């Protein structure tokens, strides 16, 4: 493909991403399958352009006079990110072959006029309502938080299965496969790999035999903080794909009762092979939207983990396209859902038992506000202060709550709050 044809392809992929809900990666794969003539170098160059544009979308749209279509964003990126002079951008837009059509007068004038000072949210590359929240939550550190959240090439973390192996053994296996793992700074079970070149984790023997799983260090820390004890009754209320279920099972060392529930059966089914690989067990229970299906466990659980459905804004460094799909209304809806789920899940906790509230969100409406709503409605649940003897990360806690983020812990963004039922 010519460089110009690659630009045209990137523009059309950006339009498809904007119009749908699928991850950028999936849209790009589908494009590759439908356009077999594109070689691996072409696909790589197109993907680089697409991600570059997505991460700088706010600024590029601003430069292009508010236009959000793929063509305008690509033109903006050649000007503002690649610093190409006008003649080169025009040469790439000659309209020949499969390249994009020539620049319009308006497009030309957008990239030749002075950029001027960008509003904070444009420079940060995040929606305005998100930046307003960041300013409130992080104060002077908000730009650093925003920058790290949208920075490319997030590492790949592995959680080793301490029931089967040691971190040193897995490290050896990874080095033998010519990878360069590092120990994660917070989690004793974690190994970190660079995102580039992408390691083929699933092909490794240790993955197939359950010696390790892919899991962000933030999730590993959460599993350590809740400290599921062997011999107890534990409910992973929003189990999803089971990442945390596996972590909890590992802490429980095969002793006690572990229940993983979710409202989506397909997600629960995906946990089964993961449990088998890891050599651990859990009861999988499909529940209704109102929590129906777990009544037998009312007042019975020592620990309930609520890893609530959320905006996923803590993972935007991995899925920057999602930043532009989120609306303030959706965040409001999620806050309501999270508050309801917490009330349902709290019924399962026995007196003296604990409930943990977790999101992978960076937004206060889904984090502190939901925690506050739970506290107001459930005065019999007392906040449990997070202390260093629970985990070193507690130095960053505010009382019973903890925020993690790419900027502060080098993990994805997470919120954690812990409560104990007093009566
Ligand atoms: C953040 S994901 C869980 C991720 C999972 N714990 C992990 O570590 O891989 C949230 C999950 O909550 C589930 N969910 C949505 N509404 C729910 C409800 N009313 N009750 C319980 N789970 C719900 C979703 O299906 C989704 O799987």
UniProtKB/TrEMBL annotation:
Any single GO molecular-function term of the entry would be: methyltransferase activity
* Record protein name field: RsmB/NOP family class I SAM-dependent RNA methyltransferase
Q: State whether keyword Thylakoid applies.
A: no
SUPFAM superfamilies for this protein: S-adenosyl-L-methionine-dependent methyltransferases
Q: Name one Pfam family in it.
A: RsmF-B_ferredox
* Keywords assigned by UniProt, alphabetized: Methyltransferase, RNA-binding, S-adenosyl-L-methionine, Transferase
Annotated source species: Brevundimonas terrae
- Give the lineage: Bacteria, Pseudomonadati, Pseudomonadota, Alphaproteobacteria, Caulobacterales
UniProt-annotated catalytic positions: 360
- Family per record: Belongs to the class I-like SAM-binding methyltransferase superfamily. RsmB/NOP family.
Residue span, SAM-dependent MTase RsmB/NOP-type domain = 146-422
Q: Sorted alphabetically, which InterPro entries does this protein's record hold?
A: MeTrfase_RsmB-F_NOP2_cat, MeTrfase_RsmB-F_NOP2_dom, RCMT, RsmB-like_ferredoxin, SAM-dependent_MTases_sf
Name its GO BP terms in alphabetical order: methylation
């Amino acid at each position: 493909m010519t460089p110009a044809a690659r630009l045209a392809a990137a523009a059309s992929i950006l339009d498809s991403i904007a119009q749908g809900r699928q991850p950028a990666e999936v849209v790009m794969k589908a494009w590759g399958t439908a356009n077999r003539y594109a070689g691996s170098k072409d696909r790589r160059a197109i993907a680089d352009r697409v991600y570059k544009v997505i991460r700088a979308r706010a600024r590029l749209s601003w430069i292009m006079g508010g236009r959000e279509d793929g063509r305008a964003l690509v033109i903006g990126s050649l000007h503002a990110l690649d610093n190409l002079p006008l003649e080169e951008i025009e040469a790439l837009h000659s309209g020949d072959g499969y390249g994009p059509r020539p620049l319009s007068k308006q497009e030309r004038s957008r990239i030749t006029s002075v950029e001027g000072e960008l509003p904070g949210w444009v420079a940060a590359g995040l929606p305005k309502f998100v930046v307003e929240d960041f300013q409130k939550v992080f104060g002077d550190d908000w730009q650093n938080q925003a920058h790290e959240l949208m920075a490319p090439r997030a590492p790949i973390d592995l959680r080793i299965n301490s029931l089967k192996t040691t971190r040193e053994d897995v490290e050896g296996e990874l080095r033998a496969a010519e990878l360069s793992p590092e120990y994660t700074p917070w989690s004793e079970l974690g190994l970190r790999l660079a995102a580039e070149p992408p390691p083929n984790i699933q092909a490794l023997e240790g993955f197939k035999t359950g010696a390790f799983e892919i899991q962000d260090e933030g999730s590993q820390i959460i599993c350590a903080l809740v400290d599921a004890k062997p011999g107890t009754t534990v409910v992973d209320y929003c189990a999803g794909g089971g990442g945390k279920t596996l972590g909890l099972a590992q802490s429980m060392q095969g002793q006690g009762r572990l229940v993983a529930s979710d409202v989506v059966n397909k997600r629960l089914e995906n946990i089964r092979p993961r449990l088998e690989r890891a050599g651990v067990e859990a009861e999988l229970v499909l529940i209704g939207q109102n929590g129906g299906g777990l009544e037998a466990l009312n007042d019975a659980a020592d620990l309930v983990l609520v890893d609530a459905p959320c905006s996923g804004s803590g993972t935007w460094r991995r899925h920057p396209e999602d930043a532009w799909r989120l609306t303030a209304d959706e965040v409001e809806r999620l806050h309501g859902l999270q508050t309801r789920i917490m009330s349902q899940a709290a019924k399962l906790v026995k007196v003296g038992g604990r409930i943990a509230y977790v999101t992978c969100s960076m937004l206060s409406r889904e984090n502190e506000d939901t925690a506050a709503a739970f506290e107001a409605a459930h005065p019999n649940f007392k906040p449990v202060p997070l202390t260093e003897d629970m985990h070193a990360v507690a130095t960053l806690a505010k009382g019973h709550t903890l925020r993690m983020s790419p900027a502060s812990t080098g993990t994805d963004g997470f919120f954690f709050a812990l409560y104990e039922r007093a009566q």
